[in-house]
Amino acid sequence: MATATKTWKMFIGGGWVDSGRGEAEPNIDPSTERVADEIQVGSRDDADRAVEAAQKAYDEVWFDTPPKERSAMLFKLADAIDADAENLASRAPLGTWRASRRASTRRVSRASSAASPSA
Q1: Does residue 28 sit in helix, strand or coil?
Q2: Which one, 26, 84, 86, 114, has least CB within 10 Å?
Q3: Domain identity same for 98 and 110
Q4: How far apart are CA 10 and CA 91, in angstroms?
């Protein structure tokens, strides 16, 4: 029985979207040489949409947001990274050829705690 493979979409403009090309590539786990999941293949148009969305977010939200509110947003992001550290760390070895999930989890947690006010 074949296992369903997750296809990761692209995050553009605040939402998960399919590639304009409609293609995905396998993400190979180097430790097993098996397909772990699939990743959307972006196009130049996808990159342009992402840049436009980022510029719009900066112009309409970030630029006028007071530093205290920006800080709160970044802490919220750090908390979300911490909450999903195990999942994020499990993806890191696939792209970086690292073998240790525990070490990767610590790296993810350290990265988010670097922004913490208690760090």
Answers
A1: strand
A2: 114
A3: yes
A4: 16
pTM here is: 0.62
pLDDT tens-digit profile, the chain (119 residues): 456 678 889 999 999 999 999 899 998 888 788 888 899 999 999 999 999 999 999 999 899 999 999 999 999 999 998 998 887 776 665 555 444 445 555 555 566 566 555 55
Separation of alpha carbons 85 and 59, rounded Å: 30
CA–CA gap between residue 42 and residue 22 (Å, rounded): 9
Question: Per the structure block, which two tokens stand in for 57?
Answer: 């977010």
Q: Are 96 and 114 in a shared domain? A: yes
Shared-domain flag, residues 88 and 47: no
Q: Cα–Cα distance between 107 and 95 in angstroms, integer?
A: 15
Q: Beta strands of the chain (E only): which ranges? A: 7-8, 10-12, 15-17, 24-29, 34-40
Both tokens assigned to 106 = 């610590």
By CB atoms closer than 10 A (0-12, 13-18, 19+), residue 112 is buried
Number of neighbouring beta carbons within 10 Å of residue 52: 12
